[in-house]
Write a structure and sequence with these properties.
eight-stranded mixed beta sheet; Rossmann fold; alpha/beta; globular; single chain; 10 strands; two-stranded antiparallel sheet; 32% helix
Length: 180
């Protein structure tokens, strides 16, 4: 956990019963609206990855873009958007997966990475791990290496980080929340 993890965790709003009854939605918008806490968030990721050899960040649509862009800029590496199906104009590879509430498909351009590129896969939250696992699969299919998966929030009760670890991926999250 980062030195700023308490400030970051405290800036995340919990919305009960959204998008359906029984779900505790973890809303990062207040964190993004607080310039000082947002800086602490990005700095936490910069400090973690500044001495690692990375070639790119695979940022997952859409909140992963918010994190991935400033981090890629600070690290001097490329940003590769992992998009929802139908959003990329060039030749793509796709991967379908299950979410907590539905199924979805994500895609990457076929020229997103060079073989052997070292990639950080990033999103705002790890719930069941389906989106992250699908993104990791796409990175691997393009012959790049997933160095780690990173998020602001891990929901360990939903076993996503455990699924990612069992699939052989290192996992980093700034903070955890129990209950979903």
């Amino acid at each position: 956990m980062s030195a700023y993890s308490d400030d970051i965790r405290n800036a995340i709003r919990t919305v009960a019963d959204w998008p359906e009854k029984g779900v505790m939605f973890r809303d990062i918008m207040p964190l993004l609206q607080d310039a000082a806490v947002f800086r602490k968030l990005i700095d936490s990721f910069v400090h973690r990855y500044q001495n690692q050899k990375l070639d790119a960040i695979a940022a997952i649509d859409a909140r992963g873009f918010i994190l991935g862009a400033p981090l890629a800029y600070e690290l001097g590496i490329s940003l590769v958007p992992v998009r929802k199906k139908g959003k990329l104009p060039f030749e793509t590879v796709t991967q379908s997966y299950d979410l907590e509430y539905c199924s979805a498909t994500i895609e990457l351009h076929t020229d997103a990475f060079a073989p052997g590129d070292r990639v950080l896969v990033m999103d705002d939250l790890i719930a069941t791990g389906g989106t992250m696992l699908a993104a990791c699969e796409l990175v691997k299919r393009l012959q790049a290496e997933v160095v780690e998966v990173a998020a602001i929030i891990d929901l360990p009760d939903l076993n996503g980080s455990q699924r990612l670890k069992q699939a052989g991926f290192d996992v980093y999250a700034i903070c955890e929340f129990d209950g979903h």
